[in-house]
Amino acid sequence: MAKEKIIFRCRECGGKALKWMGQCPECGQWDTLEEVRSKAVSASGSGRSALVSQPVPIDSVDQNRLQRRQTSIAEFDRVLGGGIVDGSLVLIGGDPGIGKSTLMLQVVSWLARHGQKCLYVSGEESLPQIALRAERLNAHASTLFIVAETNVNAIVEMIGKEKYDTVVIDSIQTVFHPDISSTPGSVTQVREASMAFMRLAKACDTPIFLVGHVTKGGAIAGPRIMEHMVDTVLYFEGDKSHIFRILRAVKNRFGSTNEIGVFEMQEKGLSQVPNPSAVFLSERSAAVPGSVVTACMEGTRPILVEIQGVVAGSGLGGSPRRTILGVDSNRVALIAAVMEKRLGMNLGGLDMFMNVTGGVKIVEPAADLAIAGALAASFLDRPVGQQTLLMGEIGLTGEIRAVGHVHARIKEAAKMGFTSCLVPANAAKRLPDIKGITIKPVRFLKEAISELFHGKA
Ligand SMILES: Nc1ncnc2c1ncn2[C@@H]1O[C@H](COP(=O)(O)OP(=O)(O)O)[C@@H](O)[C@H]1O
Ligand SMILES: [Mg+2]
Q: CB-based contacts of 56: which residues, under 8 Å, 6+ apart?
């Protein structure tokens, strides 16, 4: 038998030390080293040697072993790159209470109803609690098995003995490896458990979904260190005060990472939103100063979103207040500076508030022109035409730069009843005619603002 070895591991960063110290030698945190008596975490990793692999010629590998299975939840399949891949390990991260358990229970129940055998392992809720939720979500199925278990070895044994088509572990923070003394949810535990599930997923060809909580600001390091271990990382996000939830792929070994799936949280669980543009614009009121619409690309799909801006005099002097939600605040600062320099709009001393409705987060610079439009509209107190869509990146000299997928964005706007569209002049040259939409090519921010507000700038 291998000799038991004592080492000390840091609860925070997972760093190792051979003797106890007050401060972790790797991350510098105090009082985080814990004694670990284990064979499992020794350098050779006794548990790991079970799978001895042989190199094979690449031509002899059967690619068809990587099967994808679709669920009826198209928004979910799209984010995964077209369905669930056999043997993949997928992390679903998100704030507590956002709806991760709800989503996964709905997914496995759909699979189970279509003849697949699924296992839902919960370390957070008791069996009656899960059954009660399943009742509410109408997620009962005879081949959906549930178990309340937190011991990694027990779960691995369970899945190794009985072949399941899909497994969900809810959540990775509650499971523990009995050979490791640190508490569940600590970096060491999360890492060892993830490794165990990774080996298991590959060995049994079973897709495993790991649910992981991320607190605001990433206070729990757990899911972050798992990101490089798993095949796919999905984040389930949204504003809890809104009903919309967005499932976003931030890493995907089997597909694009730009895709998003949009859901609505309802009493009966999550329902898909196949036409997000309509939903995000549904609460838009008549043309009011400070509200503009842009089209942002989310993966292969253009989505129309409303950007709202308010600029107001602080009156008190001192530093103005800036509250920017849904768009990058550095981007807004840059645009405000360009507006000040090129348009002579004195935004510097004013309070500035921005929001993207529906809790959407825009990362594309293509929204720049819309941000400028919203700020200018509020500054001038004049509305932008309600059927006008804005797109374009703003350069530091006030030029409007081309953006990608212009055609797709305009088509979406036309579908939603927009009639006019401000487009970077460079991109407008190559555009075919689109029925019902007047294209207004703009070269400079000044030109765009005067087009929007009829010569006001
Ligand atoms: N009885 C209910 N009726 C309607 N919505 C509910 C009900 N119970 C829970 N929810 C919704 O489900 C959310 C919790 O979802 P859950 O899947 O448990 O989140 P997570 O697993 O991400 O922590 C709550 O924030 C709430 O919006
Ligand atoms: Mg949960």
A: none
Q: Is the separation of the CB atoms in 360 and 305 below 8 Å?
A: yes
Q: How far is 335 from 340, CA to CA, in rounded Å?
A: 9
Q: 3-class SS at 419? A: coil
Atom index in ligand 1 nearest the CA of residue 170 equals 21
Per-residue exposure over 351-360, b if at least 16 CB sit within 10 Å of its own CB, e if not: bbbbbbbbbb
Ligand 1 contact, 96 CB (< 6 A): yes
For ligand 1, is residue 267 a contact (CB within 6 Å)? yes
Residue 119 host element (H or E): strand 118-122
What is each CA distance from 379 to 226, 294, 367, in whole angstroms? 46, 19, 18
Q: Which of 92, 95, 102, 234 to mutate to test the pocket of ligand 1 (most atoms within 8 A of CB)?
A: 102
Ligand minimally distant from the alpha carbon of residue 95: 1
Taking only Cα atoms into account, the Rg of the chain, rounded to an integer number of angstroms, comes to 26
Classified as helix, coil or strand, 322 is: strand
User: What DSSP state is assigned to residue 207?
Assistant: -
Pocket test for ligand 1, best of 213, 245, 265 (most atoms within 8 A of CB): 265
309 lines ligand 1 (CB under 6 A): no
- What letter does residue 436 receive in the DSSP assignment? T
In angstroms, the Cα distances linking 247 to 94, 105, 424, 453 are: 9, 15, 30, 37
Number of other residues whose CB lies within 10 A of the CB of residue 73: 20
Cβ atoms 453, 380 nearer than 8 A: yes
State the distance from the centre of ligand 2 to the C-alpha of 253, rounded, in angstroms. 25
pTM metric for this prediction: 0.78
Q: 118 pairs with which residues across the strands?
A: 144, 166
In DSSP terms, 294 is beta-bridged to 305
CB of 62 closer than 6 A to ligand 1?
no
Find out whether the beta carbon of 150 lies less than 6 Å from any atom of ligand 1. no
Q: Whose CA is nearest to atom 7 of ligand 1?
A: 267
The pLDDT tens digits for 220-239 are: 445 567 888 899 999 898 87
- For residue range 4-35, what is the model confidence (pLDDT) as tens digits? 778 888 777 777 888 888 888 888 888 888 88
